[in-house]
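S1.2 Input.
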Amino acid sequence: MKRREVRRMPRLPMLAIVCATLVLSGAPARAQYIVYDPSNYAQNVLQAARALQQINNQITSLQNQTQMLLNQAKNLASLPYSSLQTIEQSLARTQQLLGQAQRLSYDVTQIDQAFQRLYPQGYTGTTSSQQLVADARERWQNSLAGYQDALKVQAGVVQNIDSTRTETDALVSSSQSAVGALQATQAGNQLIALQTKQLADLVALIAAQSRAQSLDGARTTANQEQAREQLNRFLSGTQGYQSQTVQMFH
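S1.3 Output.
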């Protein structure tokens, strides 16, 4: 009797069939679907980009305002260096030298009185010879004092050159390193003041030299008038030559 051959099914297909049967026999599962709307997504992205741009604009505006405030603070910063005291001291020294003018000083009233007495337009016959000599000597002393005073002023102006150079270097350095408009303006103003001081020294020097030259010129003119008067007195005050008998040999 022939044996029947029983064919065995593979295990994997059988397991798949069982799982499928269980799934189909169980409760139906609820499926969840995600809906993607391209237009809505693009609109959301655009709104987010606009919001980000507004934030960036606000940040830039705040940075600009901060920089503006910093620039205003720099522009209002005062120059830390000042040459005003040095300039005032230099001007005071020059003025002091002018105030030390000897004998005939820079005074209109005193000059008028001195010229009426020492530098007359003409001498009269009542003026004694001793007075003529004394006036001539006093005029010479005035001229000598004028030249001495001019030399003093010249020396003072030359001494001011060193301080002027030092102040100029300091002011130029401060102007180049200025952090704001106010500092640059103040440095420029101080440089102008320094130039004004130099002009004042130059005016003082010219005044002292002119004073000395004027006194010497007035002395020369007065001496010429005095010489003319003395010559007239010599010619008119003596008798003509009269011959006299003189014994030469004994």
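S1.4 Remarks. The chain has six helices and no strands.
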